[in-house]
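Hi C.,

You asked whether I'd gotten around to modeling the 258-residue construct. I have! Everything is below, sequence then structure, no commentary in between.
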Amino acid sequence: MNDIPALHWQGGPIRCGECDYAQLRALDGEQGCEPGHACMQDVYARRIDRFFRWHPSLSDEQLTHSYFEVRAIAARRASLFRLPALMDDPDETVRLQVALRLPQAQLVRMAHDPHREVRIRVVQRLAPAELGALRNDPDYGVRELVAQRLALALLPTMANDPDRAVRLRVAQRLEMPALLRMADDTEPEVRRVVAERLPVALLSRLSRDIDWRVRWEVAQRADAATLESMRDDEEPEVQQTVRAQLAREVSTIGADHG
């Protein structure tokens, strides 16, 4: 527990006599404080956190503290009414804590925070209908999360995102007819997802795809007519799948007429 020496956040030893809460040293256990274990002056975040867990009512008093760790940890337990003042805090660690607790009605104001980790937390908490402002975020990781949660009515607007990972997420959720437009995506991984989800009647659109993995996916689900058109596919793996599926079709028809 005390393997890390107690050190004042500004350097040097802990100076209990200069602390605003020096009177707590006279109290026992969690009623007080303990240098090297539960101390607001320590540079070590875990000890600061323990201090505020013991004294959550003091959190509001330290939201303007000069040390960012104190502000960030105090923000975890501070009154919700005090959090808006920290939305523009100069340190992203503080703003991250604010984004985790801020009421929904105010959270959208942090949608364009300069730090990606803060915006990621915003995306995770905002209601799907409120995510539209983040569709064009400069960070692909943020946009990927948006694509996972965005309201379906707005999702087609992300189908042409410049990043493949984002378009993959879009293709996994998009509904018809917008999904069909992604059959022409430049990335085979995206087209393969489209092939997994297109209505069977439309799979012929991808039966001649230049990537054999997309054609293989088509062969898993295609109707008899599309399978017949793929019987002589140049890729042995696809050809084998096509013929196995056709044999299954024949077997099923035979059983139905038996």
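If it helps when you're writing up: The chain has twelve helices and no strands.

Thanks,
B.
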